[in-house]
Amino acid sequence: MSVVVGVLGPVEAWDASGSVIALPGPRHREVLARLVAAGGRVVPVEVLAADLWEAPPPGAVGAIRTFVAALRRAVEPGRAPRSPAGVIVTSGPGYALRAEADVWRFEEAARVAGPPAVVSARLDEALASWRGPAYAGLAWAEGERARLAEVRLRVVERRAQALLDLGRAGEVVPDLEALARAHPWREEVWRLLALALYRVGRQADALAVLRAARAELAGLGLDPGPGLRELEGAILRQDAGLAFGDAAARVWAGAAAAHDRVTLAAGPRLEAAVGLMRGLAVTGGEGLVAAREHRAAAVEAAEELGDADLVARVIGGYDVPAVWPRADDPVQAARVVGAAERTLARLGAGAAPGMRARLLATVAVESRGGGSVRAGAAAAEAVELARGLADPVVLVFALNGAYMQAFGRAGLSGRRARIGAEIVAVSVRHGLASYEILGRLIGLQSACAVGDWDRADGLAVHLDELAVRHDRPLTSVFTAWYRALRRAEDPAVPFAAKEAAYREAAGLLEEGAGMPGLSEGLSALASLCLRVRHGRAAEPVDPGVYGRFAPWADAVLRPDADLGAVPDPPCDPLAEALWALLAAAARARGDAEALERARVALRPAVGELTGASSGLVSMGWVRDVIV
Fold it and tell me: Is this model's pTM higher than 0.70 or not?
């Protein structure tokens, strides 16, 4: 059942058909609104109580649980008794909302970018969702209400600019006049109004508006900013550019035209394209997929030009941090590695150290999960070269390659922890946000390997903060999976809650994250590991859902599976978990040979949690698996 909760006005909820859901009462609505305000994160019961009452009564916690139960009946009327809730879920010490919210959609729309027609249409839709003051009547939401009011004003201003860019100045004048009266301190409103008046042929009125803005701001003890001053001067000069767009639009158009004039040569275009791909890649989802596709095409195009230095710059310029040691597109990765190796051979001993280090780091990063001797040597040489350079970006890129090649056997989490710590140190010192996130993710995985949950919890919180600050959405996928692992390792958490946490994490990964190298079969594997570890039968599913993990899943699920034919796991963070599945299957069947094979592979990691160095799943302590 798809549920939408509305807080852009009085608190309401609608079902999948758009019909209003009858919510129980004022306190129930407050609880629902507070879960929306948390943005899908867990709100502890004690926090809910503190928000609902100035001085929570003795029975406040029980009352909140009663409110939640009633809300669940209202929003999921068809849910079977004692089955897990799907809209308001219990998580740890509190509750979290797993539904849509009008305010979340509004804020997503507020960030829309693109052609003016697209921006205008999306912002119109967003503004139409407002039914009154946000979180109407809720005292605890005063700060959030003020924040959203500011966001709404910015949306109105952006919509006005989009309409101006579309040549529809006359449509925005009445709204901007009303907005200027209501918010006389907002310089952008005055600027947009004066520009709109000028574009509809009312130059005198435009100048009068700018004089009025100066007077209003003076009353507040302020002077007009550069935007208003520049516009006034442009109107007095009757600047022809005002008829076609604002200053920012003219600068963008001029820059684009200059780019087309200056970079007609293919080489500079390819290098510029790599810069664009770097920006796309960190957005995740479609951006990451597009970056991978265009990168391979850029490398091939550079090779066709026959300039080895250009090929090296195009290949090495894509220094995007990579955290998962399995390629999302192995065929494309192999093509990039082949091009890097050919370029290294062509450049020979005369290659600049920085260029050679980038090419070697590319070989190491793109050869992830293969356990190749050549890739390991490339990583080592890249780091050695990078340490002799005064270029922190080359160093962290080379260290990224070293991390990718640090999965040759079990028990290497300490080595990876040291690599991650150095990446963090260099990144913090030089302001390399994306690589700082990479280093802290490596640290999170390494802390999980040894069960250092206090350190891991702190890293997860810090990573979430970095993800928001630097707009790195993929980071939250890894922290969500970490929290599922954390719950799975907590003996106080009921089994159903452990499964629910993994389902929630899987949803984030499957919602267009653009990382098939990570996502393929992972949800099914996590469920299987959890159930095997707790002595529960695996849920009946299509065997195909295990994807690349099918040989090890079959070892557990098929009584007739030939354990001797099960291959060694690939060299990545999940190898130990796969060895543990083989060990479980061998022990259940009394297959001493297969069991000893798994024991030998896992023995170097004794003292660690099996598979937890992935930050995703665990099969318990290695010492218990190999007994």
Answer: no
